[in-house]
Structures are given as structure tokens and as C-alpha cells.
Design a protein that fits this description.
Helix content: 40-55%
Distance between the termini: 45 Å
Shape: elongated
Structural class: alpha/beta
Strand content: 5-15%
Radius of gyration: 28 Å
Number of strands: 8
Largest sheet: 4 strands, mixed
Length: about 350
């Protein structure tokens, strides 16, 4: 039995773009049934770009929320001016990222989108479902299945996160060369789908052109800061600064940890410590030389003060070296203890589940 045709009547929707400019045609929304279906194959109930998630399932919007929201950065938004230019336009297009010598690293974590560190910038690819008008109507138009719906407050946050995310892409792709970089396959795939349906043009999909992308993204480019989530009021954020300030304002000592080995974790301290100890070593050597050649004049008033300064400076240096060693050892103990605690807690939970199953 063929599926019912979708309603042709206009609907009040929060979808920023029109159906004629959508870049994914795989989904169709039946308003009267509050049902989202695949246009190409009604028997296929998988979400485009994430086949593990089923359409119309309670997990659908929960997954979309996790895939788009940046809760930690939203909470840190009042302090982001310390890390980045307070403007959402502070985003270099993709071709200029390469000019800066940065490697574009794909990430599926929305928290990492547009965070950069040294010669890398993390960019989240555009999910195919966000290019579908039917998906926006189902999730944000107020017509979706109530069983799969989020609370109005959370739904609004997800909507603003989606708008902010796509607004950032309006700045990442400003020229045809940026579009070519986005659709080019790299490590992990492309940043932007090549066609308006899963698979390739050979499977029935129409190739997405730069002109079509411009038509789709135009409404998002015109959005103001009041229409996006707090994180997307800012553009690129330096991850190294975020790690420092998150310890103060977010009370998080491991924001997006990338270190898998102890050596890699502690190596970041080597440079500053070597520089500090080098400076102290030069100063102490200069003091030692001066004291050695001026032993006969140490009884004069000014030289007594200098001798006292040298003595206290030497003591402070010894204490500083001892404190640095203590801090590094404390960090090592903390890392080892944290891993042991995590492993023990996991084993305890596993045993509890086995007991409860019995």
C-alpha cells in the first residue's frame, strides 16, 4: 500500500529556508500523521547521515540534541570574550584556513567545532538531515510526534544551536574554492554532502552545486545573535586559552583532553619550565660571578643589600624548583589515581548489573 501523500497546505514553521532550496530530498513529512518518512524508500526508517537512529523513534530528537548542542560552551559564553573576538564573523573561510597553514580536522563533536590549536582547526561536517526541509518541520515546526518531542525549552535550544551551526557554515564557505574544499573527500569523508540524497549521483541523487548551497545558506547568513545559541555569538576559539580559563570559570580540568600518553601530557610543560629555569640559571650565575669578584667590598652598605638579595633569590629559586617538582608529581599521581578510580568504578558497575540481572 503506497504511503499517503504529504499535505500540500502551507504550515506555520520555524524552518528558516524554503522547501525549494533544501539540499536533501530524502525525507518527507506527513503532518496529519505526525510522521517522518523516507521519500525514496518508505520501508527505510533510518536517519540520513546516521543509520543507527530510526525516524520517529524517541531517540531521534535526543540524538539531534547531542549532535548539535554545545552546553558547556553556552554556559561559558559570558567569558568567551576573553578567548576570542566578540563577533560571530571571526571565522576565516576554508581556503584561508589553508593559507594560515592549518590542517582542517573533521570532528563529530559539536563542542570542538571551530576550535583551533596550533596548526589544527576542528570543523564539524554538515549533517545531511539539517539540509532537509521535512526534518526541520518535523523537529521544530511543532508538528512532530509528541512521543519523540523534547521539552519546549530544550527544543528551542536545539533549534538555536542548529541555526548557529549553519550560520557558521555561511562564513566558512564564502567562495567557490571554499565549496570545492568542503565537498572534497578527505580523511573521514567530506565536510558537505555531494548530492541531495545518500550515496552518489549514480544512485539517483542530484549533485549539489555552489549556487544551490548559496540559496540554501542565505537565510542563516542573515540571522542575528538573538536567533542562535550563546556559543555561536562567537566564531573561532583558541583551544589552548579555553583549557586555561575553563579551569577557573567552568571548574573543568580536562576540557576536551587529547593526551593519550603520560609523555604527551607532560611534554607541554617542558618548554615553559626549561625557559624559566634557563632564566633563573643565568641570573644566579651572574650573581655568583659578581659576589666572587667583589668579596673584598662586601662590607659596604650597598653591597650588603646586594648580598642579601642574592641569598634570598637563591632560596626562592630552590623553593620554586621544589614546588615545580611537587606539582608535576602531584599531577602524575592524580592521573594514575583517576585512571584506577575509573577502572574500579567501571568494574563495580559491571558487577552490579550482573547481580541485578540474576
Amino acid at each position: 500500500m503506497p504511503p499517503p501523500s504529504p499535505d500540500s497546505q502551507p504550515t506555520l514553521s520555524k524552518t528558516p529556508f524554503s522547501k525549494s532550496t533544501q539540499l536533501n530530498i530524502e525525507l518527507v513529512f506527513f503532518r496529519r500523521l505526525s510522521h517522518l518518512s523516507r521519500a525514496d524508500d518508505p520501508q527505510n526508517t533510518r536517519l540520513p547521515s546516521q543509520p543507527r537512529i530510526q525516524l520517529n523513534s524517541p531517540e531521534l530528537l535526543s540524538y539531534v540534541s547531542q549532535d548539535l548542542q554545545t552546553a558547556e560552551l553556552d554556559s561559558f559564553a559570558p567569558y568567551l570574550w576573553l578567548l576570542s573576538t566578540p563577533s560571530y564573523t571571526n571565522i576565516s573561510p576554508l581556503h584561508h584556513q589553508l593559507i594560515k597553514g592549518r590542517t582542517i580536522v573533521l570532528t563529530e563533536d559539536p563542542q570542538l567545532h571551530l576550535l583551533w590549536i596550533y596548526d589544527r582547526i576542528f570543523v564539524k561536517p554538515v549533517p545531511e538531515y539539517l539540509l532537509s526541509h521535512a526534518f526541520w518541520e518535523f523537529c521544530f515546526g511543532g508538528h512532530g510526534d509528541t512521543k519523540a518531542s523534547l521539552s519546549p525549552e530544550v527544543n528551542e535550544k536545539v533549534f538555536k544551536a542548529a541555526c548557529g551551526f549553519l550560520r557558521s557554515w555561511a562564513l566558512l564557505i564564502r567562495y567557490r574554492s571554499d565549496f570545492a574544499i568542503a565537498v572534497k573527500d578527505g580523511e573521514g569523508g567530506s565536510l558537505l554532502p555531494k548530492s541531495d540524497s545518500s550515496g552518489s549521483e549514480q544512485s539517483g541523487g542530484t549533485r549539489i552545486t555552489y549556487e544551490a548551497f548559496c540559496d540554501f545558506i542565505a537565510p542563516f547568513a542573515e540571522m542575528g545573535d538573538d536567533q542562535v545559541s550563546p556559543r555561536y555569538k562567537y566564531g573561532e576559539i583558541r583551544l589552548s586559552r579555553l583549557k586555561i580559563w575553563s579551569k577557573i570559570f567552568m571548574r573543568s580540568f580536562h576540557f576536551e583532553q587529547f593526551y593519550g600518553q603520560y609523555g604527551a601530557y607532560f611534554s607541554r610543560f617542558y618548554g615553559p619550565l626549561i625557559f624559566l629555569f634557563g632564566v633563573l640559571s643565568v641570573v644566579l650565575s651572574a650573581m655568583q660571578v659578581e659576589l666572587g669578584v667583589s668579596t673584598g667590598r662586601m662590607e659596604a652598605g650597598s653591597w650588603v643589600v646586594f648580598k642579601s638579595v642574592c641569598r634570598w633569590f637563591s632560596i626562592v629559586t630552590i623553593l620554586l624548583v621544589a614546588a615545580s617538582t611537587f606539582v608535576l608529581l602531584t599531577l602524575l599521581i592524580k592521573l594514575v589515581a583517576g585512571e584506577v578510580f575509573f577502572a574500579a568504578r567501571s568494574m563495580y558497575r559491571k558487577r552490579r548489573r550482573k547481580v541485578s540481572d540474576v
